[in-house]
């Protein structure tokens, strides 16, 4: 396999079929809407700490370029733009990029949405590269991380999230989540989930250093939150070694 080709066509087709429903918080992507506050909280903590930003600033990413890889219809790209970043979003499914573009225009946001392999961005540099709940869907995780690393500016940050490969993630995301229709059936393949140690290995092989790992936990009463428990899902932040 060409190392720059990381898209799994079956995965792209699965998520492309959800494009029209992506922005409906009660629709098939409802779980992603519920994830977003925790994602943004973690991201804000990491960028503030790494770059010495004012935690009270409304547009802390002004003057910085951000790349959202596997952006879907823009659930994370739009908040990044509102935080001041010049945002590029790329997705394997053209349907998602089109839905993202239409929604951003309706919000008055100028976001550069593209479709296809992330390797097509080679030569560009971004201060912030984010890829949330994506690596478990790619064809070659190591090549995917190497490609993301090559897109980082010298002082750039890479922030990822992904399910851990544990009995809890199988139960919560597949048996319960997909079984009860909270997540579209066929979204997850537990054997493709990546453990923190495995992901850290890919990060280090790409010439980056892991600077933070936190868990993403779920409480039925309060929803998703950043925590120290990595059994379900986790965040990872890396920068150049």
Identify the notable features of this structure and list them briefly.
globular, Rossmann fold, alpha/beta, single chain, 24% strand, 8-stranded mixed sheet, 7 helices, 241 residues
Describe the structure.
By secondary structure, the chain is of the alpha/beta class. It has a single domain, classed as Rossmann fold (3-Layer(aba) Sandwich). Helices cover 34% and strands 24% of the residues. The chain is built from seven helices and eight strands, in the order H-H-E-H-E-H-E-E-H-E-H-H-E-E-E. It has helices spanning 9-16, 30-51, 77-82, 94-107, 141-150, 167-178, 196-205, and strands at 65-69, 86-91, 112-115, 126-132, 152-163, 208-219, 223-227, 233-240. Strands 3-2-1-4-5-8-6-7 form an eight-stranded mixed beta sheet. Strand 4 (126-132), helix 5 (141-150) and strand 5 form a beta-alpha-beta unit. Helix 5 (141-150) packs across helix 7 (196-205). The radius of gyration is 17 Å and the shape is globular. The model has no long low-confidence stretch (mean pLDDT 92).
The proportion of residues forming helix, as a percent range, comes to: 25-40%
> Could you give the order of the helices and strands?
HHEHEHEEHEHHEEE
Biggest sheet character: 8 strands, mixed
Strand residue content: 15-25%
How many DSSP helices?
7
| CATH homology superfamily name | Vaccinia Virus protein VP39
Report how far the terminal alpha carbons are from each other: 28 Å
User: Mind telling me the CATH class?
Assistant: Alpha Beta
Shape summary: globular
**Count of domain modules:** 1
Kindly report the spatial arrangement of strands forming the biggest sheet.
3-2-1-4-5-8-6-7
Total beta-strand segments: 8
Q: What is the CATH architecture assignment?
A: 3-Layer(aba) Sandwich
Give the radius of gyration: 17 Å
What's the pLDDT, averaged over the residues? Answer: 92
Structural class comes to: alpha/beta
CATH topology, anyone?
Rossmann fold
Identify low-pLDDT runs.
none
């Amino acid at each position: 396999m060409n190392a720059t080709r990381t898209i799994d066509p079956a995965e792209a087709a699965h998520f492309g079929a959800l494009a029209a429903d992506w922005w409906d918080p009660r629709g098939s992507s409802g779980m992603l809407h519920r994830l977003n506050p925790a994602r943004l909280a973690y991201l804000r903590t990491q960028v503030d700490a790494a770059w010495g930003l004012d935690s009270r600033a409304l547009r802390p990413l002004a003057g910085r370029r951000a790349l959202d890889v596997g952006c879907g219809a823009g659930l994370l790209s739009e908040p990044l733009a509102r935080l001041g970043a010049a945002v590029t979003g790329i997705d394997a499914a053209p349907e998602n990029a089109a839905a993202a573009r239409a929604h951003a225009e309706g919000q008055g946001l100028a976001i550069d949405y593209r479709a296809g392999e992330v390797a097509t961005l080679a030569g560009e540099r971004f201060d912030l590269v984010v890829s949330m709940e994506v690596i478990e869907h790619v064809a070659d995780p190591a090549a995917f991380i190497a490609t993301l690393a090559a897109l980082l500016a010298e002082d750039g940050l890479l922030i990822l999230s992904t399910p851990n490969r544990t009995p809890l993630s199988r139960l919560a995301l597949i048996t319960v989540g997909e079984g009860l229709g909270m997540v579209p059936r066929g979204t997850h393949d537990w054997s493709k989930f990546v453990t923190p140690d495995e992901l850290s290995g890919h990060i280090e092989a790409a010439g980056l250093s892991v600077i933070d790992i936190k868990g993403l936990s779920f409480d039925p009463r309060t929803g998703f939150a950043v925590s120290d428990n990595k059994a379900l899902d986790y965040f990872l932040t890396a920068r150049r070694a």
